[in-house]
């Protein structure tokens, strides 16, 4: 019997099998016979093929055995011509493909080289002949006409194959069948494959070939890329040829085959080249083929007959059920995040676990092993079939050890539970449960209590096994037992529906129809408008399966509203969260601020929603009053990022300040703080407050505290809110909105008499420094307050206190106090304890009290300094004229002589008497023990310590250091610029004026 | 012999309805159970639910009929009080071979009902008459 092997080379290759070569070269059978070392046997086989073609009519029966023969053909593209004189084509193409898996031949030859080698007629050639099939195909092809393939090859040259038909007169009798056309693909050699496909008629006439008349069927995938004319010829049939991998690149069969004059698409170039065999002159010049035209129709039939019996061995379907699922279903595009997609995933998991379980259960004899916990041990009582499932009434058996000792009947106890076990088609086909059987059902089975029937049904019984040993001991005669006809139930009545048409379902439908009609999702729909803990942001977002838009509405409570700066292209960054991070430089404060909201759903999951830009300062207050603390619907947002506490710990300060909640959430405790939140991106309508809703019970308002309480609060990093007076501001940059700003704050609680260093809790200063980072949005009015040299009041919300320092981050809100205190107190939920502007005005002493400079003073803090000048920084001491009008030092000298005049470039006025500006840094021996205090003195102080005579002169004459040394200073207010504690305490301060 | 499988199916639908009302989601085990009881229909029916393919047409006269948009876009009309679907699968697998309780369209109707995900559409009496009479549902 012929067979066709598919070899996995660089392209599909099929080999021809010869019957008697199996034993000779089994080791090389896969590689083919025609390697130089084994070429003789192949040649013998071909010879025999040729002979058999001659004797074809005598042969009645045959089969082939598994040797492979392959022929590499290097064909001249010009040597074959196809003439379709009749225009007649068969509809069914002939599917015979040439395959070469020859080992001989120089695989490295270029097509031209191989062609040149193949062309010379003088060379030594060995012929290989292909037998034609026997049977009815042989009747259609008289003796001596069977086409054969002669493979001539040198040891180093690729084979060339000649097809020959000795007579043209015989072609007409099988017009329908011997349609053969050659598609001569003029394309690159790699693609030169030709297929010869059997016609339907040839298929009908094919019979198994005889033992000695194996036809080497040659088959390969066709790859037609010929011209339209060639394609036309192809409609009748074409020869397909696959070169072996070695020769695949070396050019192949190119010659077109011309249909014969009889009208059949014949291979007209087939001519006998030697003996009785048919050789195709594949390598001769065009025109020679006309003399030796020969129909190949019969050969096609023969080859097709071979094809019927030599086909690729089909993959044996595994008789055993591998999976409980139907894995062969067509691919459907399932809705992302939908039920079907989830079920697909679950099926995949179930398949895997079933395969593993089956492997393990086969590996070990489950009957001999002890019953593990969770395994249902069931005795079959009754079996019936319903809708391709088997419903098995079972008695659950519990006593351990019964499997080997106790007969099932005796083991039944009155207390044993009766179950209805469902087996699907595959499982029941394996189990073949009959009454008396013992079946183990391994987890994960499922239990379904049918209320109306008060029956327990066991589902998902894929992991089931029959325990045969018990059956044998119980009923030894019953193996194998006949398969009893199962009782089949009456089909379900078409008049009975499953009773879900109640008003309840209709009502729910109405509730969700709107959202469906709006094109929104289905998960977590609004349903009723009351607060429902089932609406979870987590479920909605996780249900998406991938980052995307959250369609359904989710009920949330807006805990905070604030604004943050956004990059120039916020949409791009939102859409591509994995975009390369911005440069390490701190983000400039310039840019649009964007409305943000910290929201919390009914399950306690937090999200930060970035909303539309805020062009106006007061809009934030409006949105705060509108949303903060109220229940809102969240919709049409995109998930930008899942922010985790591990990576972005600082971002959780605000969340921690609204945690734990005042009321516990369903389904989760309040012990563990949230470890993640979602960063969402939305538009203006993404957050909408529910009408008429009061402040939510989930809302934890920012609680304003006196600064003293803020400084004394413990418990790690927390967010605080307070109102304080800005005593001093230092801007570490060019502008307020582009640089870090340090404020010195105080409030009456710190300025009270007797307060300060120690009362109750830890040390408290009279003032406290606060840093406003560049990520914190400062509106214009706040920036004006900061730039103003006079003290002013600002309110701070959600300022982070970390390591005793106050820090305004992007989630903090700095505002000028609102005149509408009523709304503010409503918003915060409590009367603000801090004094109003009026009380502040009289509550604060003038000037404000400061702490004396000490060893524990921190940078950016204000303090008073007292000491004696012990040194002068002569290098930095200087003086310069400044405009008397505007104070600018951009003066241009205009006057000459003894009374120089200046023109101020800043105010563009003549300056006759410029102010004298002085800079002097001195070192003080102060209260700080073992420390050096350098003070950059204020103008007024410098003037007070310098000799008055020096200051009277029109031009500063300078002064002696001795005049300054030893002078007492203070107390003067200073701001601490730098503190260096190693190697010795060194404090650099600057005198300020309050 | 009375069939028992419909009771199992009905109980499954009830459980799905109950759980979906509570959690707005179907747990994994119920999905697996659906697959076990209804076979490959379950996946296809859930896909229909995902795609909101089930519409309940109601007319002023009070008539109601379900329309399921099949995978090919064809509309199948299922009646509210009758266990029937005009699709070929129902004719073959349910009616002729009794291999299954439902086709995917009917199962999709039941699941959509249980989850409250049926789209509602009000149509005229004439339209619903045409639909119920097997005419074209195009409107």
TrEMBL record, chain A:
Residues 23-44, 79-294, 311-341, 570-592, 812-838 are annotated as: Disordered. Residues 600-994 form the DUF4503 domain. Residues 211-222 have a biased composition (Acidic residues). Residues 578-588 have a biased composition (Pro residues). GO terms for biological process: double-strand break repair via homologous recombination; regulation of establishment of protein localization to chromosome. GO terms for cellular component: nuclear chromosome; nucleoplasm. InterPro entries: DNA_repair-scaffolding, DUF4502, DUF4503. It comes from the Eukaryota. Residues 5-134, 289-448 form the DUF4502 domain. Residues 100-110 have a biased composition (Low complexity). Residues 168-180, 230-249 have a biased composition (Basic and acidic residues). Residues 25-41 have a biased composition (Polar residues). This is Scaffold protein involved in DNA repair. It comes from Gadus morhua (Atlantic cod). The gene is SPIDR.
UniProtKB/TrEMBL annotation, chain B:
Keywords: Metal-binding, Zinc, Zinc-finger. Residues 76-114 form the SWIM-type domain. The keyword Zinc applies. One of its GO terms (molecular function) is zinc ion binding. The keyword Nucleotide-binding does not apply. One of its GO terms (biological process) is double-strand break repair via homologous recombination. One of its GO terms (cellular component) is Shu complex. This is Zinc finger, SWIM-type containing 7.
């Amino acid at each position: 019997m012929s067979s066709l092997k598919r070899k996995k080379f660089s392209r599909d290759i099929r080999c021809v099998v010869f019957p008697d070569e199996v034993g000779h070269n089994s080791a090389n059978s896969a590689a083919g016979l025609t390697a130089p070392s084994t070429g003789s046997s192949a040649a013998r086989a071909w010879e025999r093929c040729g002979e058999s073609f001659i004797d074809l009519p005598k042969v009645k029966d045959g089969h082939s055995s598994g040797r492979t023969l392959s022929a590499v053909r290097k064909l001249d593209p010009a040597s074959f011509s196809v003439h379709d004189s009749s225009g007649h084509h068969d509809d069914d193409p002939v599917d015979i493909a040439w395959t070469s898996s020859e080992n001989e031949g120089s695989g490295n030859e270029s097509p031209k080289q191989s062609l040149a080698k193949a062309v010379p007629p003088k060379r030594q050639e060995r012929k290989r002949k292909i037998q034609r099939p026997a049977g009815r195909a042989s009747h259609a092809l008289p003796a001596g006409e069977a086409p054969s393939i002669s493979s001539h090859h040198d040891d180093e040259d690729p084979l060339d194959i000649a097809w020959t038909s000795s007579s043209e007169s015989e072609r007409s009798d099988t017009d329908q069948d011997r349609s053969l056309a050659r598609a001569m693909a003029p394309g690159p050699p790699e693609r030169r494959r030709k297929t010869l496909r059997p016609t339907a008629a040839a298929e009908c006439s094919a019979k198994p070939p005889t033992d000695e008349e194996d036809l080497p069927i040659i088959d390969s995938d066709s790859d037609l890329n010929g011209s339209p004319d060639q394609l036309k010829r192809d409609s009748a049939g074409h020869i397909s040829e696959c070169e072996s991998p070695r020769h695949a690149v070396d050019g192949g069969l190119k010659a077109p085959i011309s249909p014969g004059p009889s009208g059949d698409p014949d291979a007209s170039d087939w001519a006998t080249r030697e003996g009785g065999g048919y050789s195709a002159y594949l390598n001769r010049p065009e025109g020679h083929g006309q003399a030796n035209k020969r129909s190949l129709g019969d050969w096609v039939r023969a080859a097709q007959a071979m094809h019927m019996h030599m086909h690729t061995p089909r993959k044996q379907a595994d008789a055993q059920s591998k999976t409980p699922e139907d894995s062969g279903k067509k691919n459907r595009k399932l809705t992302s995040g939908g039920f079907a997609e989830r079920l697909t995933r679950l099926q995949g998991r179930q398949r895997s676990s079933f395969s593993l379980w089956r492997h393990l259960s086969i590996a070990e004899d489950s009957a001999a092993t002890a019953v593990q916990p969770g395994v249902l041990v069931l005795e079959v009582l009754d079996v019936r079939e319903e809708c391709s499932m088997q419903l098995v009434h079972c008695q659950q058996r519990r006593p351990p050890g019964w499997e080997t000792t106790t007969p099932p009947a005796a083991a039944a106890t009155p207390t044993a539970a009766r179950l209805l076990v469902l087996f699907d088609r595959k499982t029941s086909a394996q189990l073949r449960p009959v009454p008396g059987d013992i079946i183990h059902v391994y987890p994960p089975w499922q239990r379904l209590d049918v209320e109306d029937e008060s029956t327990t049904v066991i589902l998902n019984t894929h992991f089931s096994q029959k325990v045969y040993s018990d059956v044998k001991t119980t009923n030894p005669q019953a193996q194998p037992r006949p398969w009893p006809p199962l009782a089949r139930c009456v089909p379900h009545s078409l008049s009975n529906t499953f009773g879900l048409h109640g008003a309840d379902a209709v009502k729910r439908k109405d509730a969700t129809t709107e959202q469906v009609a709006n094109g929104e999702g289905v998960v977590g729909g609004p349903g009723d408008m009351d607060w429902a803990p089932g609406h979870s942001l987590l479920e909605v977002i996780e249900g998406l399966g991938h980052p995307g838009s959250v369609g359904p509405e989710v009920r949330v409570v807006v805990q905070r509203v604030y604004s943050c700066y956004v990059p120039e292209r916020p949409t791009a960054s939102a859409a591509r969260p994995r975009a390369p991070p911005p440069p390490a430089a701190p983000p400039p404060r310039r840019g649009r601020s964007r409305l943000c909201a910290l929201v919390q759903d009914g399950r306690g999951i937090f999200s930060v929603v970035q909303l539309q830009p805020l062009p106006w300062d007061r809009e934030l207050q409006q949105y705060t009053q509108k949303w903060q603390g109220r229940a809102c619907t969240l919709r049409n947002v995109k998930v930008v990022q899942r922010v985790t506490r591990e990576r972005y710990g600082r971002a959780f300060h605000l969340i921690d300040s609204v945690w734990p909640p005042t009321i516990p959430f369903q389904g989760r405790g309040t012990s563990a703080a949230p470890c993640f939140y979602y960063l969402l991106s939305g538009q203006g309508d993404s957050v909408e407050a529910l009408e008429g809703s009061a402040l939510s019970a989930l809302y934890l308002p920012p609680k304003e505290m006196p600064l003293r309480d803020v400084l004394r609060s413990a418990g790690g990093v927390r967010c605080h809110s307070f109102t304080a007076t800005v005593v001093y501001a230092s801007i570490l940059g060019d502008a307020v909105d582009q640089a870090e700003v340090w404020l010195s704050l105080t409030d009456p609680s710190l300025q009270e008499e007797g307060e300060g260093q120690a009362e109750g809790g830890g040390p408290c200063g009279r003032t406290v420094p606060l840093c406003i980072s560049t990520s914190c949005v400062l509106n214009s009015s706040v920036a004006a307050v900061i730039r103003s040299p006079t003290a002013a009041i600002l309110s701070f919300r959600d300022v982070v206190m970390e390591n005793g320092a106050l820090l305004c981050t992007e989630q903090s809100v700095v505002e000028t106090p609102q005149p509408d205190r009523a709304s503010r107190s409503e918003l915060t939920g409590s009367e603000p304890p801090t004094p109003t502007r009026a009380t502040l005005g009289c509550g604060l002493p003038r000037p404000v009290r400061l702490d004396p400079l000490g060893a524990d003073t921190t940078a950016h803090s204000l303090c008073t300094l007292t000491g004696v000048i012990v040194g002068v920084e002569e290098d930095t001491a200087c003086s310069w004229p400044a405009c008397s009008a505007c104070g600018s030092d951009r003066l241009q000298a205009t006057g000459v002589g003894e009374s120089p005049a200046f023109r101020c470039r800043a105010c563009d006025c003549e300056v006759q008497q410029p102010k004298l500006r002085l800079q002097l840094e001195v070192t003080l021996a102060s209260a700080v023990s073992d420390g050096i205090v350098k003070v950059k003195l204020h103008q007024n102080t410098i003037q007070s310590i310098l000799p008055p005579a020096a200051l009277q002169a029109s031009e500063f004459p300078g002064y002696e250091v001795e005049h300054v040394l030893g002078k007492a200073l203070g107390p003067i207010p200073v701001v601490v610029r730098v503190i260096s504690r190693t190697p010795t305490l060194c404090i650099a301060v600057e005198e300020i004026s309050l | 012999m009375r069939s028992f499988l419909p009771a199992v199916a009905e109980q499954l639908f009830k459980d799905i309805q109950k759980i979906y009302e509570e959690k707005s989601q179907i747990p994994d085990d119920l999905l697996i159970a659906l697959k076990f009881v209804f076979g490959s229909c379950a996946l296809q029916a859930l896909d229909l639910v995902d795609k909101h393919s089930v519409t309940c047409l109601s007319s002023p006269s009070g008539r109601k009929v379900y329309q399921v948009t099949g995978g090919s876009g064809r509309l199948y009309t299922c009646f509210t009080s009758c266990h029937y679907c005009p699709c070929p699968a129902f004719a073959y697998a349910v009616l002729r071979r009794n291999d299954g309780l439902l086709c995917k369209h009917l199962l999709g109707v039941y699941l959509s009902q249980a989850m409250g995900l049926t789209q509602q559409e009000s149509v005229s009496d004439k339209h619903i008459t045409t639909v119920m009479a097997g005419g074209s549902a195009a409107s």
